[in-house]
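Form 12-C: Joint structure prediction
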Amino acid sequence: MKPSNQHDEKKPFPWHLVFFLGPGLLIYVVFSVYPLLDTLVLSLYNEQQGQSHFVGLQNFITLITDDTWSQAFWNALGNNFTFFAIHMLVQNPIGLILAVLLSAPKLRLSGTYRTLIFMPTMLSVVIIGFVWQLLLSPIWGISENFLYSIGLGQYFDAWLGKESSALITLAFISVWQFVGIPMMLIYATLLNIPDDIVDASVVDGANSFQTFWHIKLPLILPTIAMVSILTFVANFNAFELIYAVKGALAGPDFSTDLMGTFFYRTFFGFQLQQGSASMGAAVATLMFLIILVGVMLFLFFIQRRIQRFQF
Amino acid sequence: MKLLSRFTPSTGMRQVPKSVTVHAVLLAYTVIALFPIIVVIINAFKERRAIFRDPLGLPDSDSFTLVGFEQVLLRSDFGLYSWNSLIVTILAVGLVLMLGAMAAWALTEYKFKGNLLITFLFAMGIMIPIRLGTVSILSLMVNLNLVNTLTALVLVYIAQGLPLAVYILSEFVRTIPKELTEAARCDAVSEYKIFFCVILPLLKPAMATVAVFTMIPIWNDLWFPLILAPGEETRTITLGVQQFVGQYVTDWNSVLSALTLAIVPVLILYTIFSRQLIRGLTSGAVK
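Section 2 - Result
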């Protein structure tokens, strides 16, 4: 049966193929693939007095070396790595612990816990940003009073307003919101581990920690790797939270600037600077390359080496 | 028997405190997860003085007020914003499902030149955020005269949602037994009829999962509404809340009410679809 083989001379033109694939492919290519490629090309041009001309890699050189640009660029990139590191060190381990606890055998209410803990993940980052801004606000004093009630009141500070702590605070807000994703993905993998393997290890005398470390952890490593790459892509693409809480200027003094907000400012401009499409395209291209390199490293080194277990 | 009698009491003894610990940790985390949301919602129904005097208390007959909601609903176009969001989300999700199912079927069922390339092209879209093409998307929309229209958003969201939809639905199409389609072809049923009458009904459960995964990022998106459709008439709820809350940041009643108005629809949607979402996640739809 070769219902639609183009090589088969007797068959007519495969109109059904055009019908099924055409509309989706057309929209996808026109509004996603083409703009992405066009952005890469645009980053090699410069516009002056409405004229655009080819400048090669000049935009990138400007971005990385020019005094006015490079400071902002390296600052945003560095902040982005800090943002990512906090997610990897806090969000994913907490997600793992919650998943392990949720998958405890015969746990009552596990469905309820799962549903409730996942709830913040569903809400818009914009809403979450404002909610935490209110909660951490010294004017309202909810956090302050809470800290006093547990005897830690003197440590309260306007965390979101200080250069030294604003980025870390925002990262923790984001961790709080998205911890449900690693939790769910790891939980699903844990549920799929067949009982016999776990039982065998228990019969062999392993305690629950040993069973987790030697049996379950190796089996969920591929999921942890996937969670890491999803975290990476999401973090290096983050924008909404910073914009909602701190605005496009990512204050105080750009201390919360990420690649996403830097991209937005470069493209649209702000008080001190006019927006530039080609410089914006250059920033987007660098973000594209960073994400692409991350994804490729993941596919070629991690995904390949970690054996996928078929249950 | 000897083995059992030696182990049963000790595991039995240890199981009780262990499950208590598990519950304590999960309960503590559930409180952490829900606390901020609950604080905002209960304070939205309180008078300004009560918001500050007793932020954690429930509204009582003295402090209960709807003044914040009145102000939000009268002073801004929340109804319009919600309507815009609803239209964009329904159209985009519906078209992602339809076009995604058709493309998934074509890519898995038919062998043709470029099949692998197109499959790869869609797969790339799962990882590479469409946002990085914004500079060109905006100039494209300017050229097509679509800036400040909901059509622009729908088109971009279809392009954004298709890769994952095609991926998940392709996996699902593969599990459909070949005999079904082959039998239909022997009876000279057209390819269109095979897809719409045989395949599409079978894809329903997978499409429900895809719908939930596609819907959430669209409903919550700020980036594209901010860039492609910031006009008063086309604002979505997320953009509306963002601008409203930024503008009236000192009017606590209004801010808390606006946040509540934005949270509640999502919570309702979540309670309706959470089973579908969790089923999708736990059946490995996104692996």
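Section 3 - Comments
The first strand of chain A starts at residue 45 and ends at 48. Chain A touches chain B through 95 residues (CB under 8 Å).
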